[in-house]
Amino acid sequence: MLEPRKFKEAIKYEGRVSRRLFLAYNAALASLPLLQRAAWSESRPVYRNDPFSLGVASGDPDPQSVVLWTRLAPMPLEPDGGMPGHAVKVRWEIADDESFGRVVHQGETVATPQLGHSVHVTVNGLEPDRWYWYRFSSGDAVSPIGRTRTLPAVEQLPDRLKFAVTSCQNFEQGLFTAYQQMARDGVDLVFHLGDYIYEYEAGRNGKVRTHLGKEIKSLGDYRVRHAQYRSDQDLAKMHATCPWFVTWDDHEFDNNYANDISEENGISPQEFLTRRANAYQAYYEMMPLRISSMPRGPHLQLYRKSAFGRLADFFVLDTRQYRTDQPNNDGRRELNDSAMDAANSLLGQRQKNWLKRSLLQSQSTWNVLAQQVMMGMVGYTKGVDEPRYHSMDQWPGYTAERMEMMRFMADRRVSNPVVLTGDIHSNWANELRIDDRKPETDTVGVEFVATSLSSGGNGSQRATDHDRLLATNPCVKFHNRERGYLLCEVDQAVWSTDYKVIDDVLKPGGKTFSRAKYIVESGQASIQSS
Ligand code: FE
Ligand code: CA
After folding, report:
1. What residues flank ion ligand 1 with Cβ within 5 A?
2. Helices in 458-526 by DSSP H: which ranges?
3. Fewer CB within 10 Å: N-end or C-end of the chain?
4. Which ligand is nearest to the CA of 263?
5. Within a 10 A sphere around the Cβ of 446, how many other Cβ atoms?
6. Which pairs with CB-CB distance under 8 Å and at least 24 residues apart come from 382-386?
7. What is the residue extent of each domain of the chain?
8. What CATH number should be reported for the domain whose range is 56-149?
9. How remote is the CA of residue 167 from the centroid of ligand 2, in Å?
C-alpha cells in the first residue's frame, strides 16, 4: 500500500482515477468473463427463499433506453444477500403490456458476487415517450413486475410532465407511508435528492423502527443497510411504479462529509476513502444507474443530464464528492470572508464547467438543477435585530460559486432556471437572485425545497420562528416543517409545485394531502400562490 499521504494524493485529483486504481479496476473487470463462463455451467439455481425480495426498479431513461434493476437476495439482511460466491444467470423481459403478451425485448445477464448479485440492464431500441412493463427471472423464481417509461424524443415539444421530488428517508424516524400517495399521483418520474439511507448505528434516532447494527463502514454493512431500507414495501413499490433519477447527499456515506474529508477528526484519508469506496459501491449496486456510474474505487460519476423533450432539461448534480471542506467546520456562521472565499467550491471545476456548457446547450423551456443543498441564502436569527447566521454545509458556505452560477444564468439568459433541493428536512419556496440579501435586484430563478419523507419524525405546520424567518428573508415565499414530498406539474407556460404533506409518519395509515401549491409562469422567475 502507498503511505496515507501519497495514497490521498494519488486519488485526490478530482474525478480522475489514478493509474494504479484504474489498473486494479481493469484487472477486476477482466476476471468477470471467466466467472460468467463458470456460471453458465452451473446448474439452474434453486432458491429456498424469494431471490427478488428487494423488488425491481428502473432509472435514467432517455428516448430510446432505460436501466432495469434488481438485486438477487434471498436473505436480504445478510451481507452476501444469502447468495453463493459465484455468478448466476438472470433473464429479463420488457413488454408493451402488463400481461407480457407482447414482449418487445428480452435477454440474459449475469449477477456477480463482485457487485452483490445486482443486475443493471440497459435496454436499448425502445420507442420514445411511452410506458413499458418489465420483469426478471432466475431459476424458478420470477420477480415482481415493474412499470417504466422512455422520455420524449429530444426535438419533441411535450404537453406536460408530472414528477415527484423526494429526499431524506431516515428509517428509524418515520414510516415511508407518503410513497403510497405518490404511487397514486400518476407521475412520469421520481427524483430522489439524497439521504436515501442514513449511516447511523441502531437506535440513535429510533422512534418507530430500528437500524440493524453499528454505524455502517464495511461494504457488507452498507449492503445490509440499503437492503433494510428497500425491504420497506412502500419504497419498493414506488420504485416499480416509474423510473427514478437518483443522486446522493451525505448520509449515503457519512454525515456532512466533504469530498475526502470527514467531519470527525482523527480518521486517516486512507481509511476514509476506503469507507467511501464501500459506500459508493453499495449505492451503485442498489440503484437503477447506468453503467457509466459504475464506481472506480472511491469515485463514482453521478452528475448527469437528461431532457424531457424540449419542455425541461434536468441537470442532476453531485455536491458532495468534489466539494472543498465546509468553511468554519464547527457549524453555522454568518457570511464572513471564509464563506465568501472564491476558493470554496461545491461542484468542483470539472462539474461546474460541464454544468455551464450544458446550460448553454439546452433548448428547453425549463432548466432544472436537481441537487442536494439549499441555494437560497436564508439567514437565521434569534431576534430581528440579532446577527444572521447561515448553514456552512449548504450553498451559503460556497457563496462565491453560488453567485457565479446565478450571474452566469442571468448573463447568458438561461431559460427559466428552477432549483430542486433536499437535505434540510423542511419545505421552502425561494426566489433566487445573484445576492438574495438584495431584494431590490432582479430575480434569476426559483427554488423549491422538498421536505424529508420521514427524517425528523412528525414536524410542524408552522415553525416557531416562521414569521421572523419570512420577515428577515424576503427571498422566502413559503416555509413549513411537515414531512412529505413535492409533486410538480410542468407545461410550456406554467410550472406548478404542490407541497404534499403527511399527517403522521409514526403510525401506519398516515394521510397525505396537499398543504400548499405555488406556480411560476414561464419568463417570470417569481413565485405565486395558487
Ligand atoms: Fe437528511
Ligand atoms: Ca443531508
Report:
1. 168, 195, 455
2. 466-472
3. N
4. 2
5. 25
6. 383/468, 384/468, 384/471, 384/472
7. 56-149, 161-529
8. 2.60.40.380
9. 9
Ligand closest in space to the Cα of 250: 2
Domain over 161-529 is classified CATH 3.60.21.70: yes
DSSP letter at 258? B
Residue 65, all three cell numbers: 433506453
Query: pLDDT at position 329, please?
Result: 52
Residues 6+ apart with CB under 8 A from 464: none
Percent above pLDDT 70 for the chain: 91
Instruction: Answer yes or no: is pLDDT of 39 > 70.
Output: no
**Taking the mean position of all CA atoms in its chain, how far away is CA 138?**
29
C-alpha cell recorded at residue 397:
458556505
| C-alpha separations of 107 from 64, 88, 89, 438 in Å | 17, 14, 10, 58
**Alpha-carbon separation of residue 453 from 33, 121, 173, 184, 510 (angstroms):** 41, 29, 10, 16, 12
Task: Read off the pTM.
Answer: 0.92
- Contact present, 305 and 315 (Cβ < 8 Å): yes
As a three-state string, the secondary structure of 410-461 is HHCCCCCEEEEECCCCCEEEEEECCCCCCCCCCCCEEEEECCCCCCCCCCEC
CA distance 58 to 143: 13
- Distance from the alpha carbon of residue 373 to the mean position of ligand 1, in angstroms: 10
Q: How far is the CA of 391 from the centre of ligand 1 (A)?
A: 14
Q: Which ligand is nearest to the CA of 394?
A: 2
**For residue 420, how far is its CA from the centre of ligand 2 (angstroms)?**
14
